[in-house]
Amino acid sequence: MQNRSDASQAQIGTKAGSSRLRALFEVLAASVKLGLTSFGGPIAHLGYFHEEYVRKRKWLDDRSYADLVALCQFLPGPASSQVGIGIGVIRAGLAGGIVAWLGFTLPSVFALVLFAMFVQQFDIGDAGWVHGLKIAAVAIVAQAVIGMGHKLANGRSRATIAAASAAVALMWQNAFSQIAIIAAAGLLGAALYRSSSTEPPSLLHVSIGKRTAAGCLFLFAGLLIALPLLRQIWPAAELAWFDSYYRAGSLVFGGGHVVLPMLESETVSAGWVGKDAFLAGYGAAQAVPGPLFTFASYLGAVSGGLGGALIATAAIFLPAFLLVVGSLPFWSSLRNSRRFQGALAGINAAVVGILLAALYNPLWTTTVRTSADFALAALLFLLLHIWKSPPWAVVAAGALGGSLIYTIA
């Protein structure tokens, strides 16, 4: 009888292990696909993520996705990467978060390290296909705004919150404006919707204990304090690199382009990277998919070869990982509170407004400059929204269309 029980438990354990492994492979496949096709910067990435994880794979619903986006907007670091890490953690635990980050990040890292080593002499900033990729990002974000708006900014009051958030985001642009908008929307939502009969949020299964989460937050703060001190005691180049990139990943809100001034201060001013090399790498970073924070991989490769690239990549993304893993278990508990659900209703509407503002500026204002650009954007949106074409096909069509526009012009 004991042997039969042991055999049954072994079969259950084997099935559970197989299920976890399958979930990890699913996360890896989805994140690699996004890492190879997600052009257009952090706001566009949120559109790609929504299409892949919410609409296609249905790993989260719209409310849970918007809640996760709101959390990552509060945290310093690369918001889109943090959303991807959070989805990986929710889907497949701590290992899922690591796999999601690796899949989304490594394609960009490889491309930018190759740029640093071999093709810095080419000017790709004005290439037609690069412009076409930016137009594709416009279509992707427009799709995300419409999809999230229908579910998260419906009704007069929520639509008003979304529109007001978009207006404020456009007129007041700095590193802390999004945090202030989300905080104000949360307070307004708590007052307006706390007694409304909203559906309870879907369960977010986070297989990380609060003790582990608290340890991650403690490690995040400890490294932020300890690294500058260790750098003074042990003036090794590798430690200096790790400290600078870790600080850049820890103290920048908004992610994406916001990190560039700090990276320039840390690398160019220190003499690690020349001004021309910095600008060449910035142009290259615009042409590759994935998070813009991998610009640090390029800078690390310029100053320290492959070893420098590895240090820079690990250091700038480590704060994002520690903050997401440290925050998710507490966030999952908070969102079950009725008062907090009201706050999230307001926050979700604000997230739609912020996404709408980003669709206009910088995406639309810097990308759709001619009637041909508008025609291509409309065609790509038609392919995505009406014909339900996969995002990678829309990206490829955008690159081809951009090249044709530049050839004709």
From TrEMBL:
- Reply yes or no: does the keyword Repeat apply: no
Top-rank lineage group of the source organism: Bacteria
Which family is this protein grouped under? Belongs to the chromate ion transporter (CHR) (TC 2.A.51) family.
Intracellular or extracellular location(s) = Cell membrane
Provide GO CC annotations from the record: plasma membrane
This protein's record includes keyword Endoplasmic reticulum: no
**Where does the sequence pass through the membrane?**
98-119, 131-149, 161-192, 212-233, 309-331, 343-360, 391-408
Tell me the classification of the organism that encodes this protein: Bacteria, Bacillati, Bacillota, Bacilli, Bacillales
> Pfam families in the record, alphabetically?
Chromate_transp
* Broad class of where this protein is predominantly found: membrane
Q: What membrane topology was assigned to this protein in its record?
A: Multi-pass membrane protein
InterPro entries, per database record: Chr_Tranpt_l_chain, Chromate_transpt
Sorted keywords for this record are: Cell membrane, Membrane, Transmembrane, Transmembrane helix
Q: What is this protein called?
A: Chromate transporter
GO MF term set = chromate transmembrane transporter activity
